[in-house]
Amino acid sequence: MSSPLRPPLIAGHKSLADVTRDICTPLEGRPSSWWWAGLAVSASMLLVGLVSVGYQIAWGIGTWGLNKTVGWGFDITNFVFWIGIGHAGTLISAVLFLFRQQWRTSVNRAAEAMTLFAVMCAGIFPLIHMGRPWLFFWFAPYPNARGPLWINFKSPLVWDFFAISTYFLVSALFWYFGLLPDLATLRDRAVGWRKKLCGVLCLGWNGSARTWHRYETVYLLLAGLATPLVFSVHTIVSMDFATSVIPGWHTTIFPPYFVAGAIFSGLAMVLTLMLIARKTMRLEAYLTARHVDAMCQLMLAMGCLVGLAYGTEFFLAFYSGNPYEQFVFLNRAAGPLAWAYWTMVTCNVLVPQVLWLKAARRNFALVFAVSILVNVGMWFERFVIIVTSLHRDYLPSSWATYVPTLIELTTLVGSFGLFFTCFLLFCRFVPVIAMAEVKGVLDVGHETRREDAVVTGEAA
Amino acid sequence: MSRRITVATFVHQDDVRAATADLRQGGFPVLDVYSPHPIHAMDEALGLRPTRLTWVCFLCGAVGGLGMLWFQHWVNAVQWPLNVGGKPWNSLPAEAPVAFEMLVLLAAFGSVLACLAVCRLYPGRTPRDWYQGATDDRYVLEVDEAGPASGASEMVAVLRKHGAVQIQELVR
Q1: pLDDT in tens, A385-395
Q2: Which residues of chain A have a CB within 8 Å of the CB of B42?
Q3: Are strands B166-171 and B30-34 parallel, antiparallel or unpaired?
């Protein structure tokens, strides 16, 4: 029997022991053939990526399709795309935690893992772009034999280095800290070397109330720190563009526009993974229609914000009276790359509007299709921002276009390979749902359960 | 020094919280409660003070933010003044992003490491108090038997009243 006021978060009257068993059993048995098939595909993609990254590091970035006019292409598009994917993980784990959205407990572990893997994928691209990636540590301000010549703290690229590394480290910390109680649960079920390993990893957790008391405070602090962090990261990414004096980039709308876009694309990726995971890992009771519904509503809201940003950008180009600014926007919508622009508008603004309908949010096949299209659209958004702003500059004689080479395409494939390989390994070795958090919300919507039990007990 | 403790196991979080509050009111020293998830209002039942870890977080954040602000100022304006587009040496807005990132980094790592330190959690630790089920579906309550003279029978009665499913004595 469920409460009419608060619908249950977890379907099917699960007990605490059921939660432990449902989440841990898949990790303890043998992987299914579906898992092996998925791993084979994603590991092959990763291998393709490794070969192509090795090749471009050996030959230099002349293997890319860039030219004098279009100096940023696929690499920065992919970088911004992956960083954006990561942001929904932090939104779900930190922002929704601060807003006390209890439905997040079923989703947050997987979403945070997704954040980590997406940031790893993102980090690869600027690293290769340096040309001599083995000298990446020159980014760090350390006393050196070159003067010491310090890094330029007034450069957004340096801000980016600090933002991305902080984001990765803090997300990893947040994720691991949240994992401690669940690792202890795994330890207590396991035998042999698994027990030893989990025992070391869970740092000797025993569920003491004194530990929980401090743990909850620190978790709240981390959420409070991660929330401004996630906004700062994409703000700084947008400043890589906005602080340059290039029409189409040099605008103050970029920080909020990029943050909204990042969260939008990340939510789409979470939905994609969530719908796959609930089917293949039989988590229907934990990832219910209610969770999908909530995610769809968030995605719709973000999609509308992104649409508003597109409109504002266009209006401000017109209203600025700046002929170069106006040209860039007309060129985006009607120039040689108009197909990319309209793909972006269709996927990001028009397609999500279907989610206004409750029936559409309940149709998981449709939601899955929308989430894939939004991912495609958001990739194109970055491509449009970067390439259409560059390919026709102030001097018509230097106008050019940009076509990615095979090496760039295989690097993108490789980054997807890395992402899905990591995600599949995560599904296999780590509890995909935060058990300790789900156990805390198990009673939501089932408030009458104890009275039921008492009545049954008396009858027996 | 060995001492005798009573260990009671519960299946509902509300029961273990109520039992904790009642025992403490009766003067029985509840040592700790072990649970698979945080129990709402357990800190009040156990009489735990708010943790001071928030101050650790604040201090680490302040050190990170102010330290990085100082360092950037020293690099940009003192140690090797570098003219970037004719802007002032010590332009504060340009120093804000990196200072903020270091604030977050130090505050996050500082508070987590401090939390692990005060909870005595570290790799390779074997917890002294460990109960099968406390990470699964049981709530375990530890009471020191060095309580009021009226003693054991009253304590067991309170535990039973709140639905303890198992009560045992341990010497530790």
Answers
A1: 999 999 998 99
A2: 209, 212-213
A3: unpaired
For residue B137, list chain A residues with Cβ-Cβ distance below 8 A.
Answer: 15-17, 20
The closest CB to that of B123, out of A200, A221, A226, belongs to A200
What's the structural domain count of chain B?
Answer: 2
> Is position A459 within any domain?
no
Same domain membership, residue B144 and residue B111:
no
Mutating which of A151, A202, A215, A221 best tests the B interface, going by the most B Cβ atoms within 10 A? A221
Q: Chains A and B: how many Cβ contacts under 8 Å?
A: 192
Give tens-digit pLDDT for A112-131: 999 999 999 999 999 999 88
Q: Which long-range contacts (CB under 8 A, 24 or more apart) does B77-85 make?
A: B79/A148, B79/A150, B80/A147, B80/A148, B80/A149, B80/A150, B82/A150, B82/A152, B84/A152, B84/A154, B84/A155
B41: in domain: no
Give the chain B residue whose CA is nearest to the CA of A237.
Answer: B97
Q: Do B33 and A209 touch (CB under 8 A)?
A: yes
Domain-located, residue A453: no
Among A389, A258, A255, A248, which Cα is nearest to A316's? Answer: A248
Report the CATH number at residue A409: 1.20.1630.10
Confidence check: pLDDT of B74 > 50: yes
Closest CA to A178 of A450, A436, A447: A436
Q: Strand, helix or coil at B142? A: strand
Tell me the two tokens of residue A48: 């393709």
Structural domain contains residue A454: no
CATH code, domain carrying B21? 3.30.70.120
| Cβ separation B37–A201 shorter than 8 A | no
Which parts of B21-132 are beta strand (E)? 30-34
Would the pLDDT of A136 be above 70? Answer: yes
- Residue B45: inside a domain: no
- Number of structural domains chain A divides into: 1
Structure tokens at A258: 């990029």
Cα–Cα–Cα angle for B69, B71, B73, rounded to 5 degrees: 70
Question: Whole domain around residue B154: which residue ranges?
Answer: 4-36+134-171
B80-133 pLDDT tens trace: 887 877 878 878 888 999 999 999 999 999 999 999 999 999 898 888 888 888
Question: Distance, in angstroms, between B86 CA and closest chain A CA?
Answer: 12
Domain range for residue A222? 16-142+149-445
- Report yes or no on B83 lying in a domain: yes
Q: Roughly what angle, to the nearest 10 degrees, separates helices A156-189 and A209-242?
A: 150
**Residue of A97, A175, A211 to mutate when probing chain B, most B C-beta within 10 A:** A211
**Contact residues on chain B for A450, CB-CB shorter than 8 A:** 12, 14
Q: Could you report the predicted ipTM of this complex, rounded to two decimals?
A: 0.92
Domain annotation covers residue B125: no
In this complex, the residue of B34, B57, B137 whose CB is nearest that of residue A206 is: B34
Q: What is the pLDDT of residues A46-90, one digit of tens each?
A: 999 999 999 999 998 899 999 999 989 899 999 999 999 988 888
Among partner residues B35, B38, B75, which is closest to A150 by beta-carbon distance? B75
Of A170, A188, A228, the CB nearest to B136: A188
Query: Cβ contact (<8 Å) for B91 and A154?
Result: yes
Answer whether residue A245 is part of any domain.
yes
